[in-house]
Amino acid sequence: MFENVDPVLTGETLIYTIRVKNVGASVANLVTIEYDSTLPSGVNGPSAGDLSFDYVVDANPTSSPPSLTSTSAQLVDFWPGSIVDIFYPVEVTTAAQSGIDVIALAASVENEDTDGVTTATSLPQFDNDQEFTSISAALDLYVDVTPPTDKLIAGSTDDVTFTITFGNRGPSTGTDVVFALDVQLPDGVTRVEAPQQISGPTASFVDIGVGGVYSGPAAGRVHIDALDDGEEVVFEMQVRANANAEPDSAVVVSSSLTSVDQSPLLNTDDDQSQAVIVVDSLINLQVSIVAPTHLQLPSSSSSSSTSSSSSTSSSSSSSSTDEEGLRKRKRYIQKYFIKIILFIVFIEAELFTFTIQVENNGPSDATNVAVQLSNTKSYGVRSAIYNKDVGVSFMILKIDFN
User: Fold this and answer.
1) pLDDT tens, residue by residue, 54-98
2) b/e map of 276-295 (b: 16 or more CB within 10 Å)?
């Protein structure tokens, strides 16, 4: 007799195989196999309909199937050389106590001849057998780390919340379950507060960050007292990127199962999880040029009252000569007045200071900002001011967002 597994996991079915052989030279007229199981609490034995058989070797061409009950089986005309397996299933529920209870099955065989007389076997030491099977809890624990986005904006007032879910797919209850929580934070990124439990059975977070710096290899561990089949424990953890956080640096949050009081685990494919988000920058630059106050020439007005006596009887040639002379004087004054203004503007413009203002409205710090100065010609005076700066660029190493 042998079992298909040892130990058997809670929630699984244990199958005992009772093998009966006729190693003698005569036909066994009526073979009776009796089996007796010792089943602890949480373990259920089979009904008659649950048992099955298989002829490994059937030497009798006209053999009939065995008669099976929950406590015995009978074989008629069991020929020499024949071998039959009887399968005895046992249901191990999650209520069975692992590491304490043991399942036992004993079986014996005897033969009666056609007159109803029990016939002794030639090898009586093989007429009975027994098997013991231990019970072990079965767990399928998992963890999932989920970020709401794959980007963390430097300087943003919106914190990014990681959701960490710990669960048990059963079938047994896990007790004293411990998951490690590792957090890798680059410069400029901080953890807002310790992870907080949102839902699920009683659990606690133990912070093992060193010196207040919450970074790997381990930021803490989550301890769950008991996690039943189908239950989940959910924690949340918020991180924040300051305005000076380095773009393209990565925030890595991972968790893995470290211990549980039962073993083995049914599935270890998802008992660890990791999420990565990248720091991104968002800047809003504005450039403005503040020009100096325009040069204002003092406005003056002169008025002269010249008394003259004009004759009402002046000649037309004298009037024409006076008008032509007036026009010449006006053109002369305008010509030299404009030259004087241009000269003054040109000379004074060399002393003008133009202020270039570069502002960053954030939220992230801007680094390596380049401002190109260009020359837009409209007047000779303006060209004279900018000639020395044409095609020159300067570099601003950093603009903080305030």
Assistant:
1) 999 988 888 888 999 999 999 999 999 999 999 999 999 877 877
2) ebebbbbbeeeeeeeeeeee
Q: How far apart are the first and last CA of the chain?
A: 81
How crowded is residue 266: how many other Cβ atoms within 10 Å of its Cβ?
15
Say how many residues make up the chain: 402
Amino acid occupying residue 272:
Q
- Cis ω on the peptide bond leading into residue 264 (within 30° of 0)? yes
Structure tokens at 141: 């624990």
* Three-state secondary structure call for residue 250: strand
User: DSSP state, 48?
Assistant: G
- pTM for this model (two decimals): 0.59
Residue 263, number of CB atoms within 10 A of its CB: 14
Torsion angles phi and psi, residue 319, rounded to 5: -65, -40
User: Please, what are the domains in the chain?
Assistant: 2-136 (2.60.40.1530), 141-280 (2.60.40.1530), 283-296+329-402 (no CATH)
What whole-number distance in Å separates Cα of residue 386 and Cα of residue 371?
Answer: 15
Q: Tell me the three-class secondary structure of 98-124, residue by residue.
A: CCCCEEEEEEEEEEECCCCCEECCCCH
The 3-state DSSP class for residue 370 equals strand
